[in-house]
From TrEMBL:
SUPFAM superfamilies: Cytochrome c (SSF46626). Keywords: Heme, Iron, Metal-binding, Signal. It comes from the Bacteria. Residues 46-150 form the Cytochrome c domain. Residues 1-21 form the signal peptide. This is Putative sulfur oxidation cytochrome SoxX. The keyword tRNA-binding does not apply. Pfam families: Cytochrom_C. The lineage of its organism: Bacteria, Pseudomonadati, Pseudomonadota, Alphaproteobacteria, Hyphomonadales.
C-alpha cells in the first residue's frame, strides 16, 4: 500500500491518529474536528483590521493573488480561487482557520499554499523552509477579518 493510502485508511480507522499525522506538519499542535480547527492557534485573539493587512499584503498572505473580495477597493484581484465575498456566512471561524493553515490536507491537489505548515510546502524558497508562511497571530488576524465578510 502506498503511504498516502495507508494514511487515509488510518484516518478512517483511528481519527485521533490521523489528527496527529496532520499535526506533525503544522507549526503548533491543533485539534481538527470534522473540517474545522475550532480553537484559535496558540490561544491568540485575532484582530480584523490587521487581518485585512495580511490579506492584501504582498509580503505576507497575498491572498488577493488568487481571491476576490468585494469589500476591498484593490486594483488587482485574482480569480484562481473562489471569491471570498460573503465567506463569513458560508464558513465558521474554525472552518476558515483550517482552510488557511492546511489547504493541502483538505484539497490534496490545490494550488493554495498551506500557510501554517512547516514541511511539504510547495514552491517555497530555501530560506523559508522550517518556518510557516504565516505565524499564529497572522492566521488569527485573517480569521477575524474573514469572519466579518458577510453579505
Ligand atoms: C495560489 C492561489 C491561492 C492563494 C495565494 C490563496 N488561495 Fe485560498 N484558495 C485557492 C483555491 C484554488 C481554493 C479552492 C480550493 C480548491 O479546490 O483548490 C481556495 C480556497 C480558499 C478558501 C475556501 C473558500 C470556500 O468558499 O470554501 C478560503 C477561506 C481561502 N481559500 C482563504 C485564503 C486566504 C485567507 C489566503 C491568504 C492567506 C488564500 N486563500 C490564498 C487558491 C489560493
Amino acid at each position: 500500500m502506498k503511504p498516502a493510502a495507508a494514511a487515509a485508511l488510518l484516518c478512517l480507522l483511528v481519527p485521533s491518529a490521523c489528527n496527529q499525522a496532520s499535526n506533525d506538519r503544522l507549526a503548533s499542535p491543533v485539534t481538527i474536528v470534522g473540517d474545522a480547527v475550532p480553537a484559535p492557534l496558540e490561544g491568540r485573539q485575532g484582530d480584523a483590521q490587521r487581518g485585512q493587512q495580511v490579506f492584501t499584503s504582498r509580503d505576507s498572505g497575498h491572498c488577493l493573488l488568487c481571491h476576490q473580495l468585494a469589500s476591498l477597493d484593490a486594483e488587482f484581484q485574482g480569480n484562481v480561487g473562489p471569491p471570498l465575498t460573503g465567506i463569513g456566512d458560508r464558513l465558521d471561524a474554525g472552518q476558515i482557520r483550517y482552510r488557511i493553515i492546511d489547504a493541502q490536507t483538505i484539497w490534496p491537489d490545490t494550488v493554495m499554499p498551506s500557510y501554517y505548515r512547516t514541511d511539504g510546502l510547495r514552491q517555497v524558497g530555501e530560506a523559508y523552509k522550517g518556518a510557516p508562511a504565516l505565524n499564529a497571530q497572522e492566521v488569527e488576524d485573517l480569521v477575524a477579518f474573514l469572519e466579518t465578510q458577510t453579505d
